[in-house]
Amino acid sequence: MTVNTIMVVGSGTMGSGIAYVAAVGGYNVIVNDINKEALDRAEDKINSSFETGIKRGKISTEDAEKAKSSIQYITDLKSGAARADFVIEAVPEIISIKKETFEKLDQYTNPEAILATNTSTMSPTEIGSFTKRPDKVIAMHFFNPVPKMKLIEVIKGLETSKETTTIVKEVAEKMGKETVFVNEYPGFVTSRISALVGNEAFNMLMEGVGTAEEIDKAIELGLNYPMGPFKLGDLVGLDVRLRNLQYLHETLGETYRPSPLLVKYVKAGRLGVKTGKGVYDYEDTEIEKKVDRTHQLTT
């Protein structure tokens, strides 16, 4: 099977990044979202990424224009799915939304199309069960910011075929990524570690061990993380972080009980960059500039 057209379902931070690397990798890309305003924001973000890549010499102007022209932004899932050889779902980590999305994709796409989920914790076996093609369903866990992070964590479901894993590896390599194939288990490898770090950071903040800025700086410089846990949490969305922890707490036990302070932030609507305030206040232009520099979407 040859993959020419990739559809990304969901145009948030992850979906935008995935669409960008797919276009740079030479694929025709369809970005789908039910929200037209979200699509417009995604287009602006992706175009800004091309501009940044050109300025930094990561991509030529000619290649950037070619890749940019290969991207289409649509709100109609059915029409996009009908043209896709490969779909990457990047909707919220809520199983009911995943279920609805995959049932529709199974109905609208060519039977040979591969359906990948960009889940960071959920079971590709369960998600595959929402379709009539579980052999063509797989998890591709991208990392934020997608264009900078080299890894895709790939998780096979119980029924995922060898052919599907081979094609996924080829697609990932064309996007400029390396892959690790891990066994299905809640949180896989990276999300279990990341959830622990982010949750413990909130516990330390709650205990007064240090300020958010000092804790982030300690993790970045002391452990060589590209982004501290609070900056990353604000970028991903603290509601997303909380949902992941709740799922891991439910499936893996007390080690993953969400920090009370994280719960309080989410209840207050302080979800991060997308709401203008999370751990950091994004009306503070210096903080905004620091975080923005860290997660620039570059190749």
UniProtKB/TrEMBL annotation:
NCBIfam families: PRK09260.1. Pfam families: 3HCDH, 3HCDH_N. This is 3-hydroxyacyl-CoA dehydrogenase. Transmembrane segments: none annotated. It comes from the Bacteria. Belongs to the 3-hydroxyacyl-CoA dehydrogenase family. Pathway: Lipid metabolism; butanoate metabolism. The keyword Oxidoreductase applies. It comes from Bhargavaea changchunensis. Residues 187-282 form the 3-hydroxyacyl-CoA dehydrogenase C-terminal domain. Keywords: Oxidoreductase. Residues 6-184 form the 3-hydroxyacyl-CoA dehydrogenase NAD binding domain. The keyword Oxidoreductase applies.
